[in-house]
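The methods section describes the discrete structure representation at length, but only in general terms. Since the whole study asks how a given chain folds, the encoding of that fold should be made plain. An entry of this sort, consisting of the sequence and the corresponding backbone structure tokens, reads as follows:

. . .
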Amino acid sequence: MSIFSARRKRLLSMAKGKQVAVFTAPNLFYLTDFFGGGAAVVHADKTVVVTTPLEADRAEEVCKEAEIVVVKKWREVETEIERQLEKGSVVADQVAPAGKRKFVAIPEMFVNARRAKDAQEVERIRKACAGTDKTYEALEKALRPGKTEWELAAEVMRVALEEEMTPSNSDSSMGPVIIASGPHGAYGHSELSGRKVKDGDFVVADLFFRYEGYNSDETRTFAVGTVSSEMKKHYAAVKDAQQAALDAARDGVPCGKVHDAAVAVLKKNRLDKFLNHSVGHGVGIDIHEMPGIFHGNKVKLARDDVITDEPGVYFVGKYGIRIEDTIWLDRKPVVLTKYTKDLVTCG
């Protein structure tokens, strides 16, 4: 059975006898390797993709195990989807068109179907992470007092494109990456600015890129010049908390316990009140997927989950610290992001 037939089978099984239609680009990509405009109907033996002349040639070239149906105008796509369906209810990934047929929007079904990563997905995420590691190497060389956040981000983007990676799809920041210097590091999702890096800064760099449609997610915190002993102490505590979460992340462990493992280390260092987000999330076609690594989540980690491990502490008006890896759960956790987590001093 091919990768794409296995994905179709999974979705159809989860639909419990109902037909399946997709209207969003990430789910269309999951089923066909085509990221573009259109919609689709899922069959056991193929995916029928409905698109327009604008996208038709590219769809024909890149789609896997698909039949391409071309309509003249975008407004005809939904009508053609209805025509391609048989009688009965249809499960869709978003609120579907009001027509003669009953569409049931269950977006979470598609998110859950995409949760366990197959071999192709893991390999693409691995390559995205390897490329992101190289952007950190470039950032380390470029990071020095006087450089603006925009200038540093431009260098990161240059290297990412050389590594054949594209900007990700973060819904938490307008910038293609996060380079947060000094007090901006206290914002979990800081926007790029013209602020110049100064001696004594911590710089939080959260870099996320796609390789062939799949995301990396990696955060490192750099020291610039001479930083205080307090800053170094706080960095060491976050690093230990991140390791504690990694040690807890195993097949069958509730996601909430992974979060709590990191928080316990921060609490020991009287820093837990400075963590204002969950310790991790799933990663895949979207930068934020299932499962969520947050307190109280009883959902258990499972083999082939790809998640992040990213505790942080944030001191408003001063600085922030976050360390994040992308992790694949094989027999044991495999850290896919390899850039050092030791405190690197630049400038």
